[in-house]
Amino acid sequence: MGDPHPKLHATRLTRTFGRAPHQVHALGPLELTIAPGEFVCLVGPSGCGKSTLLRIAAGLLRPSTGTLEIRTSSARPAAMIFQDYGIYDWKSVRANVRFGLDIQRVPRHEANARADEWLTRMGLADFAHAYPATLSGGMRQRVAIARALAVKPELLLMDEPFAALDAQLRTILQDELLELTQTLHTTTLFITHSLEEALVLGDRVLVMSARPGRIIAEHRPPFPRPRTGDIRDSPEFTALKSELWELLRKETVPA
Amino acid sequence: MTTIAPDREESVLVRRPGPHELRPVRTHRRRRALELSLAVAVPVALVLWWQLAATQGWIDPRVYPAPSTILSDGWHRAAAGELWPDVWATTKRVVGGYAIGTAAGYALGLLMGSLSLVRAALEPLLDALYVVPKLALLPIFLNMFGLGEGPQVALVATTVFFFVWISTMSAVVAIPSGHRDAGRVFGATPWQMFRHVLLPASLPAVLVGARIAAGVAVLVIVASEQIAATNGLGHLIFDSRALFQNDVMFVGIVCVAVLGVVFSELVRVAGRLLTPWAPRDRGRGQS
Question: Is the ipTM of this complex over 0.95?
C-alpha cells in the first residue's frame, strides 16, 4: 500500500457513457493502487464497471475524469485475456500464440521458439498446427493465456477468462494459472464473478459495488504463497467466501 | 491515447481523459459539423471546379456543359413538362420490376434456404444463370414480350431477383440452429416458424441485398432503355448524345443519379422501419 513505486495507480477515476440525457455513470470515482508483482482480483455484480476499468488500464478506453498511471518501461506494457473471441479462428494455435510477438516484430525464428516453449508449458504442443475451432473451450483459453504471456507483459489483464468454461474445467485452469503466476510474478488485474476464483488466485480481493462501480471492500486472503488449489477445502476459505458473499449479495439484489 | 513521461529507465504511462471525455458535447458537435460540412463541401467543390473549368474554357463546354447550363436547362425542361414523361417511364419500370424481382427472389431464397432438397435441385442452375450478364438476356425478353414495357420490367426483375435470392438464401442458411430448435420444441408449424423465426432472423441480411439491388435496378434500366425503348431516361441520355445535345444528356444523367439515390434511400428507410432491433448502419448501398 505504502509502496512509493506502485505498478498501477488510479486516482479519482470515473467513466460515463453516452451523452447528456441518456448518460450512464458506469464507474467510480475509484482509487486503486497495485504493487509490482501483485495479483489483484476484482469481483462485483454484472454491469458494475469492472470491464470498463480493465479497458481503461489496457488503453482501449479513456477515463471520463481522473487518471490511471502505469509504471513501465515500454509503451505497451499490458496483455489482455478476454472471456471469449480473443483468439483468431483463422490462425493455427502456434500462430495465435505468436500473434503478439509478430505484432512486436520479433524475428520469426525467435517468435516460433518462444511460442513453442509456451505451447509445451501449457500442454498444447501436440496441437501447434491445429486450428482453434477444433479445440475444446479449455484448450482455447490455454491458447489465450499462452498468447498473453508469450510477450512477457508487465501487466496482465484478465477479463473473466474462465466464465465460459464448465465448473470442472474452471477449477483445473484456476490451478494451472495459480502455479503459473506464482513462478512468473506478473502484475495482474483479474476480473471475475466468482468469489472462489478470486480467493484462490488473488493476493488481494477487491469487491465492487453495483453501478457506478466503486470499491467497497478489500480482503487479503490469508493463505501463504506458494499456495495450491487445496485451500478451497479449508474452513477459513469457506468463512471468507461467505463473508464476501454477504457483501456482494447486497449489491447484486437491487440490480 | 497515452503519454510517457520519462523517469530514469522506467517511466509512467498515464491513461487520462481525452478531449472527447473532457468536453463530450462540444467534441461530438464539432465532429458532426465536420462530417456534415465534408459531405456537402466535397461535391460542391467538385461542381464549382467543373463550373470554373467550363467558363474558363479549360474544357470544351459543348462536350462538357457547365453545371449552371445543365441546371438551367433541366429547370426549363422540367417547367415545360418535357422531362417528366421520361422520368415517369423509368420510375414505373424500376418500381414494377423491383417489386416482382424482390418478391420472387425472397420466396425462392426462403424455400431454398429452408429445404436442402430444393437447394440441391436449383442451386447449380441458378448459380449458372447468376453469372450471365443480365443485359445479355434482353434479346430473349424482347422475343418473349415483344416491344413495350414487358422486356424492360422483366430485365429489372431478373436482375433484382438474383441479388435478393442469393442474400435471402445465405441469410436463412446462416440462422443459428438454436433459433429453429427453440421454435421446433414448441411445435411451431411451418407458417409459424416463418413468421416468428425465419422472417425476422433473415430480414436484416435480406435488406442489404435489397438495397444493393435497388441501385443496380436503376443501372440496368438505363442500359436497356438505350437499347430497346422509345422513352425513359436511358433513352433520353443516348438520344440527346446522338443529336449532340450534350446539356440534355447531362440533365438525364443527373436525373438518373437522383432517382437512384432516392430509390435506394427509400429502401434503406423502409428496411430500418422493418428491423428496429438490428444495429443501425449509416452507409449507403454500394450501387
Answer: no
